[in-house]
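User: Structure please.
Assistant: Input sequence and predicted structure:
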Amino acid sequence: MLLLSGIQLILIVGRCECMDNLLIYLMVYAGSILMAYNIYRYIRFSGRVRRHGNWDREGRIFRIPILMLILFLIGYLIVALFGEPDLIIGGILFGGSVFVFVMVLLIERTADRIQENERLEAKLTATEEASKAKSFFLFNMSHDIRTPLNAIIGYTTLANGDGVTLEQKTGYLTKIETAGHQLLDIVNDVLEMSRIENGKIDLEPVCMDLAACVQEAGDLVRNQLEGKKIRFSVECDIAHTWVMCDKHLLTRALMNLLCNAGKFTQEGGSVALYAGELPGSRETGRYEIRVRDTGIGMSPEFVGNLFTPFERERTSTVSRIQGTGLGMAITKNIIDMMQGTIEVETEQNKGTEFVIRLEFPVTDPGEEAGGDDTAGIRFDGVRALLVEDNAVNMEIARLLLEQAGFVIETAENGQTAVDMVTGAVPGYYDLVLMDIQMPVMDGYTAAREIRSLPDPFRAGVPIIAMTANAFQDDIQAAEKAGMNGHIAKPLDVAVMLRTLQTVLDTEG
């Protein structure tokens, strides 16, 4: 078209008697080219608008301007190629093209502003939702954290009062310990839910006895349930018991279900745990786990939100029962990570049954970790360097370790620990217990500094992380820094003693 127009323009210039005719044809040709460009721009604009949203109903409306512009262009070309336009017609044609160009430009700018406003509104909505979620989270946590804190502070005050007998003080300390574990469970739930949602938890399958895992989960809650005078039974009907599975996460899911069943079942009720095997292949076992109780049940309205974080049914009975509303959300996420399913059948005042179906690779029988008996573990005369910047944490750890027979020396940061190991006689320290987050020098850097010492006896001293950084990636970070083990805070004495024994036996 442009080539043809150029040829026509040359012919016109050749026969033009004055510059006025040349100006007229230039205006007509420029208007035609500009109108063709307007059509191109409008087609691109309409396509962008369609991609931005659903404009199915307005599709015909978008076609009308294109048809109109094409008709205008055809008229322009007819005049340009075959007509004898005068100055008025040429001005109208050129001015119309400029007008359409400006209008398309304004429409594009308006659409950009609308889209920008939509993006800002979406950000504002997301911010408001995040603020509501934060407020809701703080509201739940304020209540659930203050409940065990109130017990800890209250019973501590009572235990320190005048005229308290040894029996009363022992009872108060037992209740303080229980409240402390409740508080730790709340913190663990919140942190674990956050890590699951952020994708920071990966499955770590190990060779395990599935039937034994189910029995162990039942044993962990048996005393609690029987203490409430709730009948409790565990039944396993599994042929292929040895599987590859993340035992820690599966136990966590079962414990959440069993603890919930105990919370919402009244005295004289019953809770049953059943694990069975479904037909499967030789390489993969299919399993079904059921947790049934005769508790208060749930309303149909609440079942739809059962696995939503922080959701709890609002009834007078449920409101008196402590909990974060995270247990079911964590359980659902764990089962989803294992590519299984979880279903619930419930009726108010008649009970609830959860049904989990999972598939695990079947494996040959192996060996699992030993039991929790630590009564015979002693470390008499073993010299350990305890590196801790918090005075309270240092005192607690020191007293617990000294009770187990350790001879303890202390350092308040990583740099001091490095200096003490460097300045001591080779082999003086049998063990270094290292906190991670400390001033001057953190635990990871201190461990690397010790490992780089030229003397092999000093550089090879066993180092164990003793830290509140308690997740799997923290354990891996400790290994990368050259540490031999990891003990999480708050300290579980049995776990601590077993870890110390394993590291000292392994490292000689």
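The CA atoms of residues 378 and 404 lie 5 Å apart.
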